[in-house]
């Protein structure tokens, strides 16, 4: 039997308000390796409505990246259903529904930082003047002003990561897939960018899928937190955090409600680990 | 610091020694039958020059232009020393000029034959080599892209590409003369066949060199084939493509010259070489070879220069 | 213990060199106490270079090339001249309207270079035709190894040998009456072909001279045999052809034609008159790069041929 | 929703199903057929004039269809028809015992043996040179420019000298040809390897520095594995060039046997079809050699964990 | 001023007890870029005694990586003095005094995980049996058992990072230079590895230089915390945390002393940032 993922025949409607932006049912993905299969995702069910901010958290190797890649049509599932904005991931990708921030910066070494940030804009055929303007704005946002004409290898690890964030934000996608975007950043920048991201999300009504390893970050940002567990990669808990409201400030992190949600996440995370000393 | 001192002391000494030996070897009594002392001197100079050169190449000068100059000096001095050895051995041991003429004789011949060399150069290099090189490299590149773009063609074209890879010059040159006549177009056609395959193979290898997330990034932009090619895969393939351009720059020249052995009008570097060999004018043969070496090296150098500019980001330039 | 002799031929294995192969196969060399190693030549082999580098004791070469080498410092000496006549000619398609040498003006001519162009240049000089491509002269092409330029009409005339290329043109479908040939012999510009040459200083060594004397004598015996039974000689050549490309028909014909060029006296002794005529032709060839600039001295010797008595 | 998806056991299963258009056979077949078709058309066009001329010379008037048919059977065509080449190949490959000098297999073997030796020598030289150039600064600056200019020397011009010089020090037979082949083919390997050995990114190199690894260790464990894509691209080019080199090397050794000798003889005697057959022999040999290198590349890649996608 | 780094003529003694393992005075490093110099390090003074655990924290691009690279002799300073174990960094590197964990995993893609971990052991000429044994032990420690025969691209980002940690630990260097080793790991694994590292450090008396972006991590692990600031890269605060004792458990993070030190670090970090909203 064949998954007719790419062969969908019905028309491709824009997501209707209320209809899930991401709709996953019974999804599984197995990597066939020489020494046996790896069950990266197993029977995953998940609905994400428009405008939600969903964090994914879980031990390393539990399939977070894989799940995002399936949504982005960069990986073909072995089984199950998946719809993105009401269409197949392939169609969604082809109509450029999302922006993806990879776990590694993936900057092109032959392009300056500015031209790296402008890459998607170039591809989308945006005029040079507007590209300039947008890249300047995004680089300012991630605090890389003054580094526009450097090449990637002349930047520190964290700066490269920020450049890749600027690149994904530059074309303002409705759906953002972010794979540990703030991993290499210190607390202060991270807090700053968290706030900026939250503001952006609130203002623009984007839907965000956000992989992180930081429990406070997950709780601070999300309306929903998905806790995953490895071998096989699966969802073990989905925690609703919308009660914290949409726009939050950093002080919220001391509230009991926040701490309680964080505790639940931590418990879930711990349960997903094999060693609990 | 010691390397610098060693180099700065030894280099002038070696130079002086070489000049002295050169004067010595051309003396009537010495030429053809020098004594063991003479050869001892030559060997000593050789050893000294190795020390001097390795000192020079490890030299680090403070000012940039001076450092450039020093780095240029090494190959030049090294080459000069090779020529010195050649001259001394040929003249000293009395090697017949039909086997190997002395560099001094070649240089004299070169200077005296400028008009002939110029005409030959235009015929062979400007007309045959440049045209054939551009067309051959272009064809190899286009076929590689075609094979990459159309999977069906890939599996058919690449084996066929291998098939034409080793059509030997001596086989195709007469056929090309038959097809395209005696003048330069038949030589250019030979060059096209010779340069095609290196470009094909290297471009195909280069097109597979892009990393996974770099490609995924393009996928996530739903970038089409050509966009991905232009903005990602070709830049990544450039180091490979330049390898082919470099290999071809020397291959094209050899190809054009050899092809002229198989029928030409009475001009061209290969024509001159083949007739002068039979006339035993080996000095003229070597003057043409020198011209080929100069032209080929300059061509190669130009390609390498462009490469450095175009692939500045490659790790091999970031040491 | 047989004495070793290395012989370098001017061209690939073919009936042109039948005498040597016959002498080897029929045991003439062995009878003379020699062990002869025959090295085939080819377009990329200059026999003077080989002998100067010590790769041969004796070579087969055409005299223009040998004299050029001599002037350039390889002191070659002709020790025997089995070929009396030149087999070179210019072959034209009759349809071009060329009938006499005078009609060559403005035509495209295929010429063998590599030292074989001097008789041609001398001839053109004699006819007053320029060869440097200027108006009122002839247009010269450096011809490859085969007769395609004539057949493909890329040239009006090409160089041929009576014993080889001419017959290839015939094989390609031309009838003799559709061709016009100018033999160099008849035009008075013939030069000596296929002589035996050695290094001058070696002749000081009596042992070497006697070895060469035996070699020349045995070779002459081979040539006599070729004259008498050209067909069998052709077969022997075929057996020695390592490339397996020669055909029996062609080699038999070649052996027959070669026989016509041989010195019938049988001694292989160079006729000084032929030599003088060759030198005169070469000196007349002129141009900016003359093959020889002055009369050579001591370029031939009868010492070897005389020693065999 | 239509994304009808049932659990299927992996994607591999799909790939295993029979799809002839995914294998190599069909595309190669289609393209070969297309080329054969074009070839016949070209043969018709290119041979037309020569065929018509030949009939005219023979004084026979023929209709266009007759001429068209005859273009497919010319003895000296501009472009032989594919079946002519196939018949010639059949004659010299299948119908002739492989030990015969008229067998193409025999000649291919002669060439192949010097190709393989030359390729081996050239690969060793190319790699050693690249390793030296990458490690020894003196050599990078002083040797590389001269290596490059050495490659601009037309090999056919100096090959005879090489042969003579090697001959005078007693190196004869297979080796001189192999040396010429090696001289031509080491260069692509050197160029590719120099780039490849320098291609590890700075962090991978720094890792070795932190271990204070010796140059040899860095070479074996980092530079060499990283250079393999470049090496294999170089090897594919080099193996093809080494075949050309071996063929070229057969000329100054008297073109006694081998594909080069076949080509030369074919060209010298105007046996166009024999040339084409030899060319095809060379091309088939080259394809096999390149394919072998490609196979080794795939095996090596697999053992180094390359993604199988 | 020229640093006679490589031309040192004095003998190379092993670090005497008490003598600083790393001794830096007036160190500066400038990258010359096409568009002007980048002052990555400026006038840095720092002494690290044997057995110390020193964390470096600071905004991204402040020169943390650069400083570690200078200690490791991977970068040549433009001025100032530096000694490692009493000798020049070059000599220290040549005698294999340290192990370096890079910010990116830097695994060799053609080697399996096991053979990546064994790479330094191979280079140090350790027997095959012992290599096997040690790599197994380290892979167990970072919880990668079962992945020995995978190639790097078959692992998730965090798993690759753990493999690179196992690689550095495998040859048991006295001095450990760690550049954000736990950046891509979740809280649970991170806590686990923090404890393991602390135990290892305490048991073996290693000296550790540790770059991190996490303030709690820095305080939890360190005896000394170095706070840095960018443009030009410099040290703005050195905080002694030895008062927390050598072996700590995770509960310490709730103590007032811990929180106080963390606060001071946060203040320093904030001061080093250009935007303080
Ligand atoms: N290309 C591949 N081939 C085989 N196995 C793979 C491949 N990519 C990932 N895996 C395996 O799939 C599982 C999930 O990987 P994934 O990258 O999704 O993890 P993750 O949750 O993102 O982890 P991390 O937080 O460390 O990034 C891992 O066990 C990994 O080894
Ligand atoms: N090769 C280089 N050429 C030019 N500038 C460089 C180079 N490497 C680093 N830099 C610059 O030096 C500064 C310090 O970089 P470094 O990598 O040390 O920062 P870092 O503190 O490690 O940051 P992060 O936390 O983001 O990794 C940065 O501004 C960076 O742009
Ligand atoms: C390149 C080249 N072409 C022709 C000849 C002339 N030649 C000398 S011997 C011989 C054999 C006669 O059939 C021929 C044609 C040559 N020497 N070199
Ligand atoms: Mg991941
Ligand atoms: Mg860093």
Extract low-pLDDT stretches of chain C: none
Cα-to-Cα separation, first versus last residue of chain D: 29 Å
The CATH architecture of the largest domain in chain D comes to Orthogonal Bundle
According to DSSP, the number of beta strands of chain D is 0
**Largest sheet of chain D at a glance?**
none
Largest sheet of chain C: 5 strands, mixed
Kindly state the percentage of residues in helix of chain C: 25-40%
Q: Largest contact between protein chains?
A: B-D, 79 and 78 residues
Beta-strand portion of chain C reads 15-25%
Radius of gyration of chain C: 19 Å
Beta-strand percentage range of chain D: under 5%
| Average predicted confidence as pLDDT of chain D | 82
Domain ABC transporter (chains A, E): 24-255
Protein name (chains A, E): ABC transporter ATP-binding protein
Keywords (chains A, E): ATP-binding, Nucleotide-binding, Transport
GO molecular function (chains A, E): ATP binding; ATP hydrolysis activity
What does the model show?
The complex is a heteropentamer, with two copies of chain A (277 residues), one copy of chain B (319 residues), one copy of chain C (309 residues) and one copy of chain D (309 residues). In chain A, helix 4 (128-141) crosses helix 5 (157-169). Chain A is globular and about 45 Å long. The termini of chain A are far apart. Chain A has helices at residues 64-71, 89-94, 113-123, 128-141, 157-169, 187-204, 215-221, 256-272, and strands at 20-33, 36-49, 53-57, 79-84, 98-101, 175-179, 207-211, 224-229, 234-240. Chain A has eight helices and nine strands. Chain C is of the alpha/beta class and 309 residues long. Chain C is 38% helix and 16% strand. A five-stranded mixed sheet of chain C has the order 2-1-3-10-4, sandwiched between helices. In chain C, helix 5 (118-127) links the parallel strand 6 (108-111) and strand 7. Chain D is mainly α and 309 residues long. The chains are: A alpha/beta (277), B mainly alpha (319), C alpha/beta (309), D mainly alpha (309). Chains B and D meet through helix 2, helix 3, helix 6, helix 7 and helix 8 of B and helix 2, helix 6, helix 7, helix 8 and helix 9 of D. Bound molecules: adenosine-5'-triphosphate (ATP) (2 copies), ligand VIB and magnesium ion (2 copies). One adenosine-5'-triphosphate sits between chains A (31, 33, 38, 40, 58, 60-66, 103, 233) and E (153-159, 184). The site of ligand VIB has 10 residues of chain C, from loops. Chain D: Its main location: membrane.
